[in-house]
Every structure is written in structure tokens, then in C-alpha cells.
């Protein structure tokens, strides 16, 4: 019927008209509904962590394609990649000295790929790097994360330096995407490959957050006790939730753009 709208368009239009507080409430409800859905459909919740790693790998593959085939790094934040390399290096060190497992292998591959991306942006594709738009001061996140790690870290039997390093990588991972979001906000227009990559990060972090939340529920809180005592267990969970919500707004506009048939994502003011 001419002039009729699809249900998804009607819902999207209704959401757009709501005030910020209502939108925030709807996001929380949607997140809780997604967690309930995952709890019943995924029997082994460890698979959520594997799925998060797989989605992250897909995002990195999109990034590799952009850099090798498109021969441009326009729209990518070098500072976000630097922060990613930093927290991955810290996590890899902790993994080697504290709990060597399959995640050590995955982190090694991810760090190697991230260093390659940094190399491409700094040297091979430097002419297309938007340095003036990538203006987020990374010490605004590195210094607070370091101070927080000194104050709140695991209370396990490991060496104190290793425990602080572990806490630092957890906190830094939660905010490492902020320079990328700032760059996209500065440009207002996000080309497809960059949008796909950031959306993959958002999905990966939601799955990782879901893994932690559902594990806590399944163990009736015993998992938090296993992580140590004091504020550290709560900070781990909070970091997972924070990094999910940081990307939630962008993911909303990404889905809206895809359903609207737009190849280029246009961000309104105030998304970051």
C-alpha cells in the first residue's frame, strides 16, 4: 500500500520523538531483554565469550580489507589503535605470568594485527590519516586508568605489579574506543567499512558483557568472590557494562542507517 511504513520504521520514528531519559530507559529495557533471551537460548554461557572474540575478529577483518584494498585509513583513529595495543600488551603480559590459556593465543593474534594497523596508519597510509580530527587527548583516559588500577586491583596471591597491570588493562579496555568515537563525531559522516568495524566492536563488547553478567547470575555471585575481595569484583563488572554503553548510541544509529538503506552513516550532534 502506497505511503505505508514498515513496523520497524514506525518504531524507529516513535523512539526518535522520545526525550533522552525515555531513550535511556528503553536502552536498559532492551539490554535486559537481550540478556534474558541469551540466557535461555545459549546453554553454555562460555560460548558468549567465544562469540565475542569471533565478532571482534570479523571487525578486524573488515579493517584489514579497508587498509589493503581501499588503501586509505580515513575515518580511523590512530589513538584508539594505540590504546588498544597498550591494553592488549598489558593483558598479554598478565596472561603469560598469571593464567596462560587459549585467550593468550587469541590476544597475541589480536595484538599483532593491531600493531600492523598502527604501522599502516603511521607510515604506509599516513597521507589519508585525519590527524586534525583525531584530537582526543589520550592522557585523559590513560592517567585515570593507571591511578584507578593503583587504588583498586585484584586481591589474589599474585605479584602486586601483575595485579595492578591486570586492573589497568581492564579499565583501559573499557574506554579505548573513545578516541574513535570522537573522530567520528568530528567528521559527522562515517564511511561503511569504519562503521562496520565499530559496530562489530559494539556487538563483541555486548556479548562479552552478557557473558560476565550471566556467569554471575549462574553462580549466584560466587564468580565475583572468586575474582577477589573489596571493590575489584564490582569494578570488573562495571567496566564491562561501561564499555557496552559507550558504544550503544553508535550501534543504534548504525542499525537505523542500515534499515534506512543508507550506505554512509551520518551522526547527529551529541552522539559521543
Automatic annotation (TrEMBL):
Instruction: Please provide an example of a Pfam family that matches this protein in its UniProt record.
Output: ER_lumen_recept
Q: Which domain of life, per UniProt?
A: Eukaryota
Residues spanning the membrane: 24-42, 48-68, 104-125, 137-154, 160-181, 193-214, 234-255
> Does this entry carry the keyword Nucleotidyltransferase?
no
Principal subcellular localisation of the protein? endoplasmic reticulum
Give the record's GO CC terms.
endoplasmic reticulum membrane
Q: Please give one Gene Ontology molecular function term for this protein.
A: ER retention sequence binding
Topologically, how does it sit relative to the membrane? Multi-pass membrane protein
Look up the signal peptide feature and give its range.
Answer: none
InterPro entries, per this entry? ER_ret_rcpt
Compartments annotated for it: namely: Endoplasmic reticulum membrane
Family per UniProt?
Belongs to the ERD2 family.
Task: Please identify the protein, giving its name as recorded.
Answer: ER lumen protein-retaining receptor C28H8.4
Amino acid at each position: 500500500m502506497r505511503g505505508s511504513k514498515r513496523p520497524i520504521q514506525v518504531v524507529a520514528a516513535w523512539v526518535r520523538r522520545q526525550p533522552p531519559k525515555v531513550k535511556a530507559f528503553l536502552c536498559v529495557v532492551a539490554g535486559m531483554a537481550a540478556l534474558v533471551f541469551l540466557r535461555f537460548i545459549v546453554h553454555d554461557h562460555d560460548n558468549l565469550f567465544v562469540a565475542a572474540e569471533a565478532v571482534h575478529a570479523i571487525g578486524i577483518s573488515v579493517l584489514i580489507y579497508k587498509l589493503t584494498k581501499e588503501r586509505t585509513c580515513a575515518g580511523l583513529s590512530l589513538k584508539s589503535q594505540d590504546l588498544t595495543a597498550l591494553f592488549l600488551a598489558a593483558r598479554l603480559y598478565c596472561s603469560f605470568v598469571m593464567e596462560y590459556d587459549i585467550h593468550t593465543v587469541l590476544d597475541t593474534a589480536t595484538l599483532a594485527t593491531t600493531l600492523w594497523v598502527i604501522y599502516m596508519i603511521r607510515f604506509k597510509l599516513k597521507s589519508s590519516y585525519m590527524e586534525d580530527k583525531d584530537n582526543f587527548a589520550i592522557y585523559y583516559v590513560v592517567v585515570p586508568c593507571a591511578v584507578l588500577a593503583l587504588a583498586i586491583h585484584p586481591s589474589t596471591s599474585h605479584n602486586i605489579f601483575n595485579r595492578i597491570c591486570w586492573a589497568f588493562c581492564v579499565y583501559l579496555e573499557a574506554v579505548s574506543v573513545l578516541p574513535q568515537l570522537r573522530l567520528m563525531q568530528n567528521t559527522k559522516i562515517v564511511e561503511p567499512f569504519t562503521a562496520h568495524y565499530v559496530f562489530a566492536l559494539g556487538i563483541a563488547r555486548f556479548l562479552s558483557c552478557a557473558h560476565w553478567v550471566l556467569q554471575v547470575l549462574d553462580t549466584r555471585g560466587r564468580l565475583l568472590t572468586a575474582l577477589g575481595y573489596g571493590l575489584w569484583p564490582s569494578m570488573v563488572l562495571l567496566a564491562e557494562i561501561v564499555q557496552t554503553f559507550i558504544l550503544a548510541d553508535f550501534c543504534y544509529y548504525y542499525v537505523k542507517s542500515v534499515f534506512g538503506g543508507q550506505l554512509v552513516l551520518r551522526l547527529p550532534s551529541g552522539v559521543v
